[in-house]
Amino acid sequence: MVGTLAHQAALIWPREREVLRRRLAQAPACVLDVGCGTGEILRRFRADFAPRRIVGLDLFAGHLRSAPPPVARGDGFRAPFRDATFDLVLVRHLLQALPDPPALLREARRLLRPGGRLHLLVEDYAGLLFDIEDVEVADNFREVAPLFRPEGTDLYQGRRAPRHLREAGFAEVSVDPIVVDNQTAAREDFAGVLRNWRDGYAAKLALLLGRPEADVRRRFDLMIENVRDPSRYAAWLLFVVSAVR
Which of the following CATH numbers is that of domain 2-244: 3.90.79.10, 3.40.50.620, 3.40.50.150, 3.40.50.300? Predict the structure, then answer.
């Protein structure tokens, strides 16, 4: 995950930052990053927006040892902060991995001051596009998505986030698509995300798919080769979904 978080931040933050600048009426004074991991975005947000205070929250102590303080170890479903504490709450690359995303959104709403903003960066794995002749490999994540659902992981969470925000009581829901591709973004960061996914998840995916791990790794290797080849297009469509308390 350490490598994944570093490459994802380098790849996506420049585009995500521009959306935040458009959406924020003014620089927020107090910010919470839920699921902050190793603090890649804590560092970038502090440098680009200079909030008075930004705090990271994560369950995994190993990540927090690398994150810049202040950080807190805790559960985003039961955050250790008082009501109406923050002007902005960030939730990035997280909702697809949760069994009950709306519950986390309701907790984020509790933490926001009236008029505060929730910023989501959400993934929808139908938005990974590869120019690979083998259709099974090119559409790999569509095969995988239903196998993860019984474990509480929704690879199509990106399309559901606007509805979940409205159901959680938020207003002014907006959606800003972000595309990172191998024509305009750093190809090695894109490849680095896929390489870390391969090394971290190949064994699990092989078990779910009932395939040899070598075959799963081969699929990822073809995606990495595609991303590194400027003559073949590869893209990742993500969504910034934001709303106001």
Answer: 3.40.50.150
